[in-house]
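(Structure overview)
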Amino acid sequence: MSVEVEQKFLFDSDTLKTIEDIGVCVGQKQFQDQYFDTADFKLTLQDTWLRRRKQSWELKCPTATLNGTAEPGGERSLCTQYKEITNLPEIYQRVKALIKDSGEEGEKETTPSAEDDSWLSKLNLCCFAEFTTTRRSFTLKGEVGVQIDLDQADFGYHVGEIEVLVPEGGDMLSAKEKIRHTAQRLGLNEERRVAGKMTVYLERYRPEQYAILLSAHVL
């Protein structure tokens, strides 16, 4: 299991030119994301995001504070940090524990598979967001372990990400320092956290859910 530490940023033609001048494009791809939750937002209210991308599942959940309580996306700094779980049986067990009241007593336990989506209905999960992203990825010389992604979503929002993946229990301060240094090299001067694709999607297309998560200080 790894922890994704990232800082989002808005970019324009000047930012893109800087990235192309001092970086190396390591690929471009397009992918479709689907996000799932219960009708009463039991996952997203806990800042937990269940996503299917290219038939692969991922659960992004907040890192824990020292007393074991959830800390949404880390502190309200420029960076966010989430645990990333990609093993489907583990995802299933974690989601089931978060939802708690799903299923019936004595019901036979099943192990979900990528080919069988029946576990979604069993846990009362439905898709609440679906969009396609075109992504260009870059690395910068001298910045080991740092990746820059430039995303263009099909609903008209584009945003950049500076990302470092850290093994669970790894050095988060070092990761944040790498991100800060990379942001300096790109000439970024963000003073507050930039909205990600999901935040903008919810605000535009799921205003009720957006308002609820905003009032719960998830967004």
The chain has a mean pLDDT of 89. The two ends are 24 Å apart (CA to CA). The beta strands are 2-9, 23-37, 49-53, 56-62, 79-85, 126-140, 147-153, 158-167.
